[in-house]
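In this section we walk through a basic example: taking a raw amino acid sequence and producing a predicted 3D structure, encoded as discrete structure tokens. The instruction is simple. Fold the sequence below.
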Amino acid sequence: MSLVSELYVAGDGISTPMSDSAALSRRTQVPDFDFVLFGATGDLAARKLLPSLLQREADGVLPPHGRILCIGREPFGQDEFVARALAQAEEPDREILGNFRSRITYIPMDVTDPASYDALAKLLAERDAVRVFYLAVAP
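The resulting token sequence is shown next.
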């Protein structure tokens, strides 16, 4: 049983289980976004955050132009980062995985160096979107 099928809708004072498709159709449309993930090469991102976002892609609830901007210290290339990041995720079909891969942009940077933020600033300046900054880094 999925989390979605456990949702209930109250009607006339009686709660009834909602089907997966009914629950998905009632979700609020998410606007285009830039999800900026600091600490993207860490364990939390690999085990929890990116697999969860991949599941949202598989559920079809991410907007068409949502971006996931992954920031990490490691000097990985784009393809190497994505392969490592999704190694622990349950793999959906090729189309879903391809769509999700296209959302991800990896930016290697030293977050303690102010000059290294130029690449991120350039990407964020490309468009107007909702921005979420997630700090999956040590305090």
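Looking at the output, two observations stand out. Helices lie at 20-25, 43-59, 78-85, 94-103, 118-125. The chain has two domains: 1-28, 31-135. In the next section we compare this with other chains.
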